[in-house]
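SEQUENCE WITH STRUCTURE:
===
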Amino acid sequence: MEIRDLSRINATHATISSGAALLFLSFLVPATGIIRRFYRMHIDDVNASHQETRVHLDMLDTLVQRLPMGLVVIQPDNRVSLVNPAFTKLTGYEQSDIGTRNGWFRKAFPDIGLRTEMLRIWAQRLKGIEGQTTQAPVTCRDGSERLFGIQARRLEDGRALAIMEDVTERVRAQEKLRRDEERLRLILDNLQVGIAVVDTEERRVSYINPKLMDMTGRTDEELVGSSCQEHICSACDGSCPVLDKGMELLGTEVTLKDAAGRPFHILKSAIRTEIGGRQVLIESFVDITRQKLVEEELLKAKEAAEAASTAKSEFLAVMSHEIRTPLNGILGSLQVIRDIKIEDAGDFIAMAIDSSRGLLTILQDVLDLSAMDTGTLSLVSHPFVTAELVQPIRDTLQEEAQRKGLELSVTTGPDVPEKLTGDVRRIRQVLFNLVGNSLKFTQHGSVRVEISMLPLRNGAGRGMVHFAVSDTGMGIADDKLTDIFEPFTQADMAANREFGGTGMGLAIVKRLLRLMGSSVCMISEPGQGSEFHFSLPLVPAPGEEEAQG
């Protein structure tokens, strides 16, 4: 029997009597460590088979040499028997630098803790336990550290094979992408603008940020996956303004409804782009509901300012008339007095005095209104006799009521204390304005003033004195009830030419009562007259409670 050593191929062959050949052929494939064997080959085929095997080996060797991943073969005795060029290029280590597995691990993993862990994983991999790839930092020959994905497996003949891939840049890119995504997510989550991404093919929402959820009052589960027409589009015909109608949305004002059905106003923009190979719409939503409310308030304020300006202009016209009339009366009376005898001057002097009082009242009203608007008017509370409150009303206004043929009555309830404590001057001013206003706008019938005590709740608490002024005059329409309590305003400015007045009386009433912790309530119907009601917490004067008790 002839034995031949064919380099990396081990072959043994023999010729037997039948002329057949028995050939035992084995070779090592460096990439896998698998031993191939061929048996019972005819002796004439040996040379051809040997040549074919050489070709296969050359191909495998070329593959190993050109493989971009590092390759290490370790014998059962832990000797390193093969490293490919890629391993040397990636780590800087030659086969002679590392010698054994332990030598390689000491250089690649100088930290003893990491090395111990890698040895444990190595053992597990060779047993076929755990996953196939482990990422670990490897110290290269030049001292730099690179991140490798390492696979390890045991071959059939007991040797171990390690495959190493440098994943440093890929992991860095992934980490950068993760950080960028995290940063973008953080920005979107805290952006005070609603953002939505809509898939243009399916026309469904694929992403929303928290601000849009807050705007719509809906959850992520409700919005993501829903039709873009359902919650975030104002189109009512089922079409997309951008995709179907070709409209450009760039800060376009639209109105949407939240989950509760409340409308809110937004500026909406939409751009078409591509994300991950899919065409999408990126839509932004700027909530301008508050701005719209401010705009409406500003518009109302502007209208109110214009109305106030108009009212003041009308007031000046009225005031000039109101002042000019008594001034003419004063001047005329003085001129007549100058030309007549003293004993005939009584009536003219009385007219001049009345006109002067009218002027003084107008000026006092202006001063009071100004003082209340600036907060400089204060109340002076002291004991007073209830009769002092109502008697001047009878004395002063009875003559005017009789002149117009009206009945003026002032009634004080029997339960009203004879003496009260409060600012009698300001209370009387309120009553004078209310009664004077009723007399002015009543042509037939009566004007009544009623003062009574309101019953105490549960029989305890401070007493409330109730005042009511009613008339049978022209009445006021509902839409004018609020206006007449504003300065320089009357329900019908045209009526001023007939009835006169400055338009300050009821404004003073409203402000004085507010200063005293009360308010005026008005009930009126055109043609049926008006009623004014207010209540004040006027306590009995000292000594009055004992007298009542």
The radius of gyration is 53 Å. Residues 292-356 form one domain.
